[in-house]
Write a structure and sequence with these properties.
Far11/STRP_C; Far11/STRP; FAR11; about 900 residues; Far11/STRP_N; mainly alpha; globular
């Protein structure tokens, strides 16, 4: 047999069963391992020399033919997306996204604002005039304040100059506290409209003056909030006033009110944009989120494993995984005494000796073993004896040390062309192993040292975050209440702290405490409104669709290809051209507005999930349950799929061809989609262009990507792999995609199989794989790999064999744990049987938490505390009459 024809999986048989002369000589000179390694290296070099990449570098053998090599560019080139995820953009971008072209006319026109400002530009006097005013009164002075807030555009010549003036002028407005009368007027307007809409009054229309003043107030507040975001040190008083007046909660309430009482005059689009920026300003950005996380770790004495002596990442293990391993150990070795193991004091610094890891283990397993109540489904230990397949394996018939007979000294039947015989040497690990049972002086039982060492390693790596500690604390209270041990509604623990006392104890963490208190107050006042808010956001996402081919807009708006421009009809063609152009531009503006609103909606959802998790894990679970109920999986993945595979995002020249080529279809899908197509920009309708009266006649409209990935310049690394870096793409859709993927990952809560089965039914792996291959970026890949890691255990062997590249990528890029058995598969029968119970148990725990901590009246629940055990009659068996 020639070396060239030997496959890698046959090298071992060639060396052991029927070695040739060359192999025998190598075995005589070297060891078996060295010979096998040489064979593998030779085969790897053969594959490398046959690669078409070497032809580009002149290193391939001329005698090797590459005619049969396909050499598709997307198979040998790794493309990277130069995208950095940001929570908000610069002032120019954010202000431009606020306005539409019609809004500039609605607020009075830019020229009228200038004329009004020239008559009176004393901001102190104007601020005084606003005090005590109502939104329905004569607020002509708002036009003066608006012009000042817009950066006095008539005296500016460039966009950069106007943006700098906008920041300076709005900082002055913040100093003058112009926001106080504006917020007061806005709150009064919202309260008045809610009262009128919920009353029996039939005529509740809004006058033109009130609608104009309402939009002007919203615009001024939005720009002030933007300025405060970019200048946090100069806006501390503004943030404090926002927190005191509860504008954030009022905006949420008004959006909920709009859902049930539709009114276009309420301008809900601007309320959603304002809500997004208020959340950022009052809660904090991602840096503040990380600071709060570090503060909570320090407050609750969490062992973070950050201070590793070796500098390498430390593998961790959850308490639930350790409990399952410990139960498996006791099932196998019943003589293993718990008292012989040291307590894990480092993990439980704030616990007494009775609350050590050993006591927690005994209590947890006893509660799960001797009761079938609802709370047991929240955290189920996955032991070997509970596994459907492993529990049915036969017990070991002989002592494990009994030697097996030596293999036959002949080649295997499989290598000679026969059928491969599969044998399983697994035994039932839950069956007690009673040998040996002799006691020694230095140990309570002769358990294998490897098992003792594994137990010690796992115990020392147990990591319990403050989220897990909070979850288990609430679960313990819920169990007491559910099983009737004691009234747990008034139970307190270390997580029921007072923010005022925390400020006195930790004055260096005032900012973190303020953020956590603001999140707590926001949730307590709006948790019963979140369902309606999520429904509004889902409708925003579903409305973001492209129903017309973008190539048509390109052809008609560009004079070189416009049909109307080239038309020679005798009628007044110039007027018709203007009307058609205005119609097309307005349609494109609507598409752009829908995309901006989708970006804002998913950004709000993700921000709430992140901050709720820091406040309390059950707040985060509650919001994730609302998203799951609103079918966020289906809506988001359908939106992403439609964004990549939509003929309206592709050029018409490709679609008119008679013959369909699968490779061409894939290439068009990868290169012409919502991510790769340029972002819709309309200079004629843009805010700053209209303020500065710029002439955009020379602009060339491009809505379909023409630069394919295969045509971009390549860069080669040290391993001779080509890399392509994509710089021109739609940043808005990239932000939507990153946030949607992260939200999907957060909805897939650990140990909640029902949600994983729901995600698995959609079959998102091919879509995720396409994104990973063609648009390598951490903002996408991090969430995708974490989702796939949760889905892989529920896939079959065929799927795993066809997606080994995904599995390898998960291993290389995701965090490893001490008990990383996600690839070995799950007990699908047991998981499916318990999945619905797990979801129901979680909902019961969430209901218990919300009723215990907050008022449940808004959710339709009422806690009756008048019941007394003394009112329940005692059961006396002697008084019963048996029939």
């Amino acid at each position: 047999m020639n070396d060239e024809l030997i496959q890698i999986d046959q090298l071992e048989d060639q060396i052991i069963d029927h070695p040739d002369e060359r192999t025998r000589k190598e075995l005589h000179d070297t060891s078996l391992d060295e010979t096998f390694q040489k064979k593998l290296s030779a085969k790897a070099k053969e594959f490398e020399s046959s690669s078409p990449m070497n032809d580009e570098f002149g290193e391939a053998d001329d005698s090797i033919s590459h005619d049969t090599s396909m050499g598709y560019q997307f198979l040998i080139t790794k493309s990277h997306l130069n995208y950095h995820h940001q929570e908000y953009g610069d002032m120019q971008q954010e202000i431009s996204e606020w306005f539409t072209f019609h809004d500039l006319k609605f607020i009075g026109g830019l020229d009228i604002l200038l004329d009004s400002f020239e008559s009176n530009h004393d901001m102190e006097e104007l601020t005084t005039r606003l005090l005590g005013s109502s939104i329905g009164g004569d607020l002509s002075c708002l036009k003066n304040v608006l012009y000042f807030s817009f950066g006095e555009y008539a005296s500016k010549s460039t966009v950069e100059e106007q943006v700098r003036q906008i920041i300076a002028n709005n900082l002055k407005l913040l100093e003058l506290e112009v926001y106080k009368p504006l917020i007061t007027m806005l709150l009064d307007f919202m309260k008045t409209r809610i009262d009128k809409d919920t009353s029996e009054i039939t005529n509740c229309t809004i006058s033109k003056r009130v609608e104009v003043n309402y939009f002007r107030v919203l615009t001024l507040l939005y720009i002030l909030v933007l300025t405060a975001l970019h200048n946090p040190q100069e806006s501390k008083q503004f943030r404090k006033f926002l927190s005191l007046c509860s504008l954030l909660e009022s905006v949420v309430q008004f959006i909920e009110h709009w859902k049930w009482h539709h009114n276009n005059s309420y301008r809900v689009r601007y309320l959603v944009l304002l809500l997004n920026k208020l959340l950022l300003l009052e809660f904090g950005d991602k840096d503040q989120l990380a600071s709060c996380d570090a503060f909570l770790n320090q407050l609750h004495h969490i062992k973070t494993f950050d201070n590793s002596n070796t500098g390498k990442p430390v593998l961790k293990c959850s308490p639930l995984d350790y409990f399952a391993f410990r139960q498996d150990l006791l099932d196998k070795y019943p003589l293993y005494e718990l008292g012989g193991v040291k307590d894990l004091q480092d993990t439980w610094l704030n616990k007494s000796t009775d609350s050590s890891i050993e006591e927690r283990y005994k209590t947890f397993m006893a509660v799960n073993a001797y009761s079938n109540s609802l709370s047991n489904s929240i955290e189920i230990p996955k032991t070997n004896k509970s596994h459907t397949v492993l529990g049915q394996l036969p017990a070991q018939p002989v002592h494990i040390a009994t030697p097996l007979p030596s293999p036959k000294l002949m080649s295997s039947d499989f290598m000679s062309g026969g059928e491969k015989i599969r044998k399983s040497y697994q035994v039932n690990q839950s069956m007690p192993f009673i040998y040996p049972n002799e006691y020694q002086d230095d140990c309570s039982s002769n358990v294998p040292y490897a098992m003792l060492e594994a137990d010690e390693i796992l115990k020392n790596s147990v990591y319990e975050s403050y989220s897990v500690k909070r979850l288990w604390s609430e679960r313990e209270k819920f169990m007491k209440q559910e099983r009737g041990y004691v009234d747990a509604y008034d139970d307190k623990d270390e997580f029921d702290y007072s923010f005022g006392e925390l400020r006195l104890e930790r004055p260096e963490n005032i900012a973190e405490i303020d953020s956590l208190e603001r999140v707590e107050r926001f949730y307590s006042e709006t948790f019963f409104r979140l369902h309606s808010i999520i429904e509004v956001f889902m409708e925003i996402i579903k409305a973001n669709r492209i129903d017309r081919n973008l190539s048509l807009y390109e052809f008609e708006l560009n004079p070189a290809t416009s049909f109307m421009v080239k038309s020679t009809t005798p009628h007044e063609n110039d007027e018709a051209i203007i009307k058609v152009e205005q119609l097309l531009l307005s349609q494109l503006e609507v598409m752009n507005v829908k995309e901006i609103m989708t970006k804002t909606a998913v950004g709000i959802i993700l921000r709430l999930l992140q901050w709720f998790k820091k406040s309390h894990v059950l707040k985060y679970y509650y919001l994730s349950s609302l998203l799951f109920d609103q079918q966020f999986f289906n809506i988001s993945l359908d939106f992403i799929s439609n964004g990549f595979n939509n003929p309206n995002n592709q050029s018409l020249s490709h679609q008119t061809g008679e013959k369909r080529d699968d490779l061409l279809e894939y290439e068009m899908m990868v290169n012409q989609n919502k991510l790769m197509n340029p972002q819709i920009k309309i200079p004629k309708l843009e805010f700053f262009h209209n303020c500065l009266r710029m002439d955009p006649k020379s602009s060339d409209y491009t809505f379909i990507n023409k630069s394919f990935i295969s045509e971009l310049p390549k860069q080669y690394d040290s391993k001779k792999l080509s890399h392509v870096y994509i710089s021109n793409f739609n940043h808005n859709f990239a932000s939507i995609l990153a946030d949607m993927l992260e939200i999907n990952n957060k909805i897939l809560i650990k140990n909640q199989s029902h949600r994983i089965f729901s995600m698995n039914d959609i079959k998102p792996s091919e879509l995720f794989k396409m994104i990973l291959i063609n648009y390598d970026n951490e903002a996408f890949s991090h969430s995708i790999l974490k989702i796939l890691k949760k889905l892989v255990p529920y896939q079959g062997r065929k799927w795993k064999s066809m997606n080994m590249d995904l599995i390898s990528t998960i291993y290389l890029n995701c965090k490893l744990s001490m008990k990383d058995n996600w690839l070995s598969g799950k007990d699908l029968g047991s998981e499916f049987h318990n999945s619905y119970d797990q979801e129901v148990a979680l909902r019961a725990l969430l209901q218990f938490y919300n009723i215990k901590r907050y008022s449940g009246d808004k959710l339709g629940y009422k806690l009756n505390r008048s019941d007394n055990l003394a009112d329940i009659p005692l059961l006396n068996l002697n008084d019963l009459e048996l029939e």
